[in-house]
Amino acid sequence: MNNSLKVSSVVLHGRMKGLANLALRCGVLGLWVMVSLVWATPAGTVIRNQAVAQVGGQTYLSNEVETLVQAVCIASITPSGSLVAPSQQAVISAGGLAYFSYLLQNSGNQQFSFDLSWVQGASSWAPAGVTLYQDVNGNGRRDPGEPAITSISLVAGASARIVLEVLAPLGANGDLLLSPTVTCPGATPQGNAYSRVRIGSGPALNVNKTIDQEVVNPGQKATFTVSVSNLGNAPAAGPLYLSDLFNTPQLAGLSFVANSASAVKGRLEYTSDGLTWSANATPVQGIRLVLDRLEAGEQALFTFQMVASGSTQAGFRQNLATATGAGGPAVGQVGFDVAASYGVFLGPRGNSRAVGAADAQQATVMAGQPYCFTQTLENAGNTPDSYTLNASGLPAGVSLSFRTLAGTNLALPAALQPGQSLDFQACLSPIAASVPAFGFTLRATSVTNGNSDPTTDWVGSVLDPSAIVLRKSAD
């Protein structure tokens, strides 16, 4: 007996204390799916995995195995900076105060309480005092009433802005390099966000960039704010340029929203090639704010919007803005995630998105012979996915198998990259002449979230070869 064997696996995961299970089917991607779930799923989640084998139309299940997702603490402070290339700078007089703004983010999978402190690098002087404040209104400054903090609790995915205040002693001279530190419970402090305080006179440009949402969905608009501050003790004479370029790999799939930019101070210029700037450009591949002067302690900013296309690939993105001119250069950065979206289409070959009558195929088949309908499967999401194929409505004694266009067995689940399509054959087993006309539904289902799309095939009639008579004549 020549039975075909198809093996896949079923991953069941659910939160403890009674959360309903979610079924996921995966083949060769099973291990990858499980690892991804462990990393992205909240701590305490139970992942259950079970293999499924299909032999001769019968389904067999293996035993279940379980994995408990542990708590993973991951914290980051941006903008990052090293001792060689500090991310922020201030110029003050001896005995003065300097302020630096940072973003602390919990990238772990549950709520954590983080201890906050600071560390000093090789410097010419030691500070008379260092204090961390919670930047409640997120303006990058220390405002009256904002609390001093030594720890902060954040839920998974949340972030908070903090301000680091440095007091220089009266005898300070030269440079100080220091970084805030963040400590996960039971771990060692982490700090790679060095800033520089210089004793002297002059301007010091610093750039800060924010986004109004940490997760951007495909098709959604996001508002960016880019600011430059003079943290020096002297004016910065222009021209000063605060630039943000969009034609970078990190912003692939996002585009500038026309007429969305605005600024209160200075003038805005645009570029379509990253080299030439003017009051208008098409398409907009970059924007910059031009300033004639920035006083000590003064800030200037501009805002704009970008939209993520429906096919923007999921994942973490980072965007940089740069200030050049007196007191510069300076760089600011913002990170955000493009959310994963999952979509699937299945239809007649070359028309995966067909609807209505166009989504149905009809054929006349010969009794005792196999017949194949050709189909197209499309990953319409923005992240890799894999798909199972199932048929319903087949009459008794008729089975379905899946093949490539070359006639070989189709590996299932079928793994596709975003936007990728797969042409394949859905082949009926030989049909007896006595079988009446019938239709059946073929459905493709995402192994990640269960989204599915059906298509319909019809066997209009089954011809009996014995009733076919071939005659030839000649005059």
Structure, described:
The structure is a single chain. By secondary structure, the chain is mainly beta. Helices cover 2% and strands 50% of the residues. It contains one helix and 34 strands. It has one helix at 30-40; strands at 5-14, 22-26, 46-55, 58-61, 65-68, 75-78, 88-92, 97-106, 112-120, 129-134, 151-154, 159-167, 175-183, 195-199, 205-211, 215-216, 221-230, 236-245, 254-256, 262-263, 267-271, 286-294, 299-308, 315-324, 330-338, 344-348, 360-366, 371-379, 385-392, 400-403, 414-416, 421-428, 438-446, 452-463. The strands form seven sheets. The chain has a six-stranded mixed beta sheet, with no helix packed on it. A hairpin with a 5-residue loop joins strand 24 and strand 25. The longest helix has 11 residues, at 30-40. The chain is elongated, with a radius of gyration of 31 Å. The model is unreliable at 1-39 (pLDDT under 50).
Which terms would index this structure?
mainly beta; six-stranded mixed sheet; 1 helix; elongated; disordered N terminus
Concise synopsis of the structure shown:
This protein is mainly beta. Helices cover 2% and strands 50% of the residues.
List the SSEs and their pairings.
Layout: E1 5-14, E2 22-26, H1 30-40, E3 46-55, E4 58-61, E5 65-68, E6 75-78, E7 88-92, E8 97-106, E9 112-120, E10 129-134, E11 151-154, E12 159-167, E13 175-183, E14 195-199, E15 205-211, E16 215-216, E17 221-230, E18 236-245, E19 254-256, E20 262-263, E21 267-271, E22 286-294, E23 299-308, E24 315-324, E25 330-338, E26 344-348, E27 360-366, E28 371-379, E29 385-392, E30 400-403, E31 414-416, E32 421-428, E33 438-446, E34 452-463
Parallel strand pairs: 7-14, 16-25, 27-34
Antiparallel strand pairs: 1-2, 1-3, 3-4, 3-5, 6-8, 8-12, 9-11, 9-13, 10-12, 13-14, 15-17, 17-23, 18-22, 18-24, 19-23, 20-23, 21-22, 24-25, 26-28, 28-32, 29-31, 29-33, 30-32, 33-34
